[in-house]
Amino acid sequence: MSAANDMSLFTLIAGASIPVQLVMAVLLLISLFSWWYIFIKVFTVKNAESNADEFEAAFWSGGDLNKLYDGLASGKKRGKSQGMASIFEAGFKEFIRHKQHDNLDASIDVSDVMEGSRRAMRATYNREIDDLDAHLPFLASVGSVSPYIGLFGTVWGIMNAFRGLSTVAQATLSQVAPGIAEALVATAIGLFAAIPAVIAYNRFASSVDRLSVRYESFIEEFTNILQRRA
Q1: How many other CB atoms are found less than 10 A from the CB of residue 60?
Q2: pLDDT in tens, the chain (230 residues)
């Protein structure tokens, strides 16, 4: 291979050994998956934040909670209820059910009503956070593992380059450079896969944490409202 003519990226990848090419293919595939999940999470988190804003505006507007619940229940049939709205719906539904039982059975305590509503909201909260956390472990794994996968390809390529030089009487830079360059491409591709995944993971994890705090604060505030109504 001529160092002057064959140092293009495509030529370096095509001229690499089969194990190094497999490492590059795996890294490119991982990168494509991570970018796909990044785009999914961008819309998912943005939608969750906008839904939380809209619901909080409707909830704290001072309207009737029964009307708000009826509107969410009818909207859920069309698949619109999610996030904070789902938490409210689960808690208020359980509150209404317990109050109906309370009218039939005077032995039911207010604390039982509140505990049932809180458990329902907590269960829905866990499901919502689990949905928001989806694919984040994959991005974290890509960010931490990809550089090492690329380094493995680089080490393998450099070993092959030096093994090839062992049969040459006198090694020159023009003979060493192409083999080392094509090996280092694996590390570059590993970093190309890892850096966006790390940035995206940190950004999405921070957004999910903020939403989690908003959901938990709403659960506490709504519990106090229900307790006054009980």
Answers
A1: 9
A2: 444 445 566 776 777 778 888 888 999 999 999 999 999 999 999 999 999 999 999 888 877 888 888 887 776 545 556 789 999 999 998 888 877 765 545 555 667 778 888 999 999 999 999 999 999 999 999 999 999 999 988 888 888 777 766 666 665 666 666 667 777 888 889 999 999 999 999 999 999 999 999 999 999 999 988 888 76
pTM across the whole model: 0.81
Taking a C-beta distance cutoff of 8 angstroms, is the pair 120, 226 a contact? Answer: no
Among the listed residues 224, 42, 48, the one whose alpha carbon sits nearest the alpha carbon of residue 129: 48
Distance CA(87)–CA(77), nearest Å, equals 16
Beta-carbon contacts of residue 184 (< 8 Å; ≥ 6 apart): 154, 157
As a whole number of angstroms, the distance between CA 65 and CA 35 comes to 41
What the block records as the tokens of 172 is: 């020159």
d(CA 115, CA 219) in angstroms, rounded, equals 12
